[in-house]
Amino acid sequence: MKLKFIILSIALINVGVYSQKSQIKDAQSLFEKGKAEEAIVILKKTEYLILNAPDEEKSEFYFLKGNVLKDLAGKNIDAANNFSDASQSYQDVILYENESGKYKFSVKANLALKDMKSKLVNGAAADFKAGNFKESAEKSYKVYLFDKKDTLNLYNAAAAYLNAKEYNLAIQHYEQLKKINFSGNGIIYYATNKKTKEEDAFISPKARESYIQEGLYEKPRNEAVLSRKFDVYKSLAYAYLERKDFIKAEAAYNYLIELNPNFIDSYINLAYLKLQSKKELVDKIDALGNSKKEMLEYDKLTAKKDDITRSAIPFLQKALSIEPKNPDVTKTLLGIYRSLDMTKEYNALKATSN
């Protein structure tokens, strides 16, 4: 009985191996016919069978899977996720061939990884230009996860999420940029697409040169990129402001002043934050009645409200010293002077603003 059981087990394994190879062959055939979506369905169903296969067969399976996913992503079918999954498959190819010591697909897998990264970067840029900010962000972040040394993609993801008004995700990425002390110094490698006549950015001079050699691009040029540290904090402050996290927004704007004392937006927004903080007091004042106790509370709350309003004045005055004819700042400051009965200051500013 025991011997029969062992023979039966071996027979079942052989059937499984045959089924696996047959299905992989079917997937390869479908892929070659341009039916990548049908091919990936087979490969996903078959993947569990590959776990006990020899390393050479694993590398063949994952190379095919990588190619199918890369093709789907290239057709803009769930591009960000399929590019990410394809990159993992190609890395599995390299892993298994390193373990087996037999290199059949590693070189092609490495080339596919580089090509894929370049296409994903260009796809993110195209989405951003078209106003598809969320899609752009997802692609840029996938590239960052794929190559965390290339932190510019994390910056691009944060900027795209900010434009998409996905403030929580934007903050998450900008805070990560702060944590890694991102500066963004470097060089962008551009070339003109012969077909579209538009410039595209490449991840390296070698990546760009390969496309030029294929006759797809021309007119290469390099562009130096200055530090983006200030932009990180500016965008982070704005995101906190939009999310109404006023405490963190205030901290970010104060730091921006340390980086650039003449950045007018910091002073304007700090004044705005001060004025926003009095809204709760205004609501309490409006809810009071006419009793003696309530009138005393009214005087107390009004004095506190006026102190908060007064605290915005230095920021607005500084903003006007940077840009004396700024109409919005002038209007806001005049309104504050009038509400606080600061007649002398009101008249002086009114005379200079005419």
UniProtKB/TrEMBL annotation:
Gene3D superfamilies: Tetratricopeptide repeat domain. Keywords: TPR repeat. InterPro entries: TPR-like_helical_dom_sf, TPR_rpt. TPR repeats lie at residues 230-263. This is Tetratricopeptide repeat-containing protein. It comes from Flavobacterium limi. The lineage of its organism: Bacteria, Pseudomonadati, Bacteroidota, Flavobacteriia, Flavobacteriales.
